[in-house]
Amino acid sequence: MGKKKVILITDGDDIAAKAVQEAAINIGGRCISRTAGNPTEISGERIIELINESNGDPILVMVDDKGHSGLGQGEMAMKYIIESPEVEVLGVVAVASNTKNILGIKVDYSVDRNGELINKAVDKCGRKKKDKIVKGDTVDILNYDRVPIVIGIGDPGKMDGYDSTEIGAPIVTRAIEEIIKVNRENKKPDI
């Protein structure tokens, strides 16, 4: 039995949690709902235990800093998970926010509010930006701990209704599907 496969989502408020749970159903994976929270309330070590107790592939884990511009609880948990030899992190869905005084992260791609895979970053509403830097409160650690792929999105479950759970949380679902596809095909899309 190999390592559990994990996809991290850098948001965990109530609406994001519902969207990520919906996405888990859509992809036939598993969401560890106990990782939801604003901020993340459980440690990276405890999250690894929950991952190892879970069935499903991949396992979706939420991490959130609640707007903290420094190294917050969500980033500390994410760092622990990424560096853990017990799991395989397939990628990260980097969520844009309005947090100030942060570096942001250069994404590989983004899924915009229309569900299109683009070669730029997006803002909190899922609108295309001119650069590839997603600014979010729980993403800066990714400048130091790399993962196979980082896909940016706007605010899960929101984006002015474009990612509502009432329509199946299509944006966060698409971002997760792209991470799975990159790992399955062992190559990034050419866009």
Task: List the main descriptive attributes of the protein structure presented here.
191 residues; 4 helices; alpha/beta; globular
Q: Can you put this structure into words, describing what you see?
A:
By secondary structure, the chain is of the alpha/beta class. The chain is globular, with a radius of gyration of 15 Å. The model has no long low-confidence stretch (mean pLDDT 94). The protein has a seven-stranded mixed beta sheet, sandwiched between helices. Helices cover 27% and strands 18% of the residues. β6 (109-111) and β7 form a beta hairpin. The protein starts with a strand and ends in a 6-residue tail after the last helix.
Number of strands: 9
Strand order of the largest sheet: 2-3-1-4-9-6-7
The residue fraction in helices comes out at 25-40%
**Which consecutive residue ranges, at least 5 long each, have pLDDT under 50?**
none
Q: How many angstroms separate the termini?
A: 35 Å
Instruction: Give the rounded overall mean pLDDT.
Output: 94
Order of helices and strands: EHEHEHEEEEEEH
Query: Sheet bearing the most strands, described?
Result: 7 strands, mixed
Structural class: alpha/beta
| Secondary structure tally, helices | 4
Q: What gross morphology would you assign?
A: globular
List the helices and strands and how they pair.
Elements: E1 4-9, H1 14-27, E2 30-31, H2 44-53, E3 59-62, H3 73-83, E4 87-95, E5 105-106, E6 109-111, E7 117-118, E8 133-134, E9 150-153, H4 170-185
Parallel strand pairs: 1-3, 1-4, 2-3, 4-9, 6-9
Antiparallel strand pairs: 5-8, 6-7
